[in-house]
Design brief:
Layout: H1 9-30, E1 42-46, E2 51-54, E3 59-62, E4 65-69, H2 70-86
Antiparallel strand pairs: 1-4, 2-3
Length: 87
């Protein structure tokens, strides 16, 4: 019986990240077409404007935003599916 090797967690992280990046590119590309505009409709959550702390010696700025849309979620799911097929 062949033993299946497990990939490290960071490999799966990069696969999901690149799937989200590909989904974002697809959303930007199809956003101009009215029939596919629903793929590009997104939801944003985060700190906007960023939180800034000025301590005179140095300044710390903290801020992040997460953007999700249907194309990004589809890209992530397809990337994980392909990753599982290749293992």
């Amino acid at each position: 019986m062949a033993r299946r090797l497990r990939s490290p967690w960071w490999v799966l992280f990069f696969v999901i990240f690149f799937g989200a990046l590909l989904g974002s590119v697809i959303a930007e590309a199809v956003g101009a077409y009215p029939a596919l505009a629903w793929l590009a409709r997104d939801v944003r959550a985060g700190i906007d404007p960023p939180l800034t702390l000025d301590l005179r010696v140095f300044t710390v700025t903290i801020g992040t935003t997460i953007r999700l849309n249907v194309a990004i979620l589809l890209g992530m799911v397809i990337a994980v599916w392909i990753f599982r097929l290749l293992q």
